[in-house]
Amino acid sequence: MLVWLTTLSACSTLPASNVRPGRISNSPDTNPAETSQADRVWSGRFAVEGSPELAAASGRFTLERYPTRRRLDLLGPLGQVLARLDISAEGARLTRANGEVEVAEDANQLIEHALGWRLPVTQMERWLDGEFALVTERAADGTPRSAIDSEWRIRIDPPRRLALEWPADLNPAPALMPERRVRVRLLLDP
Q1: Domain enclosing residue 158, as ranges
Q2: Which CATH number do you get for residue 67?
Q3: What's this model's pTM, rounded to 2 decimal places?
Q4: Between the CA of residue 26 and those of 71, 164, 171, what are the distances in Å?
């Protein structure tokens, strides 16, 4: 976990053209016209691993859906918020545990910049609801068991497990092999 915290606080090698670091007050980024409760909340455990140069990470997450925004909290082993990602029509804002804030137009770009590896935050809500661009395998009852979406391969083990792998092509030609591979496992709370 300590390695992941170090990774979370380190700078990435990606260009920061759309990511702007800055300090913003600690007041929550909320729309006063919204109700205080989320429409939908998903929570559970996550584990991330990848190519040898990427540090493994694990912990808990909470994804909240509000009428005009989404909030993803990445939590440490004692329940403390390590990072909070707020997504709205205006863009994405990542607040680290130390109060540093980064903003970007695209949430996926912001997470990749901050963590150093991909995480499909804008697709997670759809996937947790069982919606995928291309279902490649179905169970006998018709529910998706395997899918490909947004360059990710998704394995669904009902009722509460998802395994994500990027890139989706598991056998690319050696010349096309990406430098980084990412695997994310999600275990949803009952």
Answers
A1: 2-10+40-188
A2: 2.50.20.10
A3: 0.77
A4: 15, 33, 45
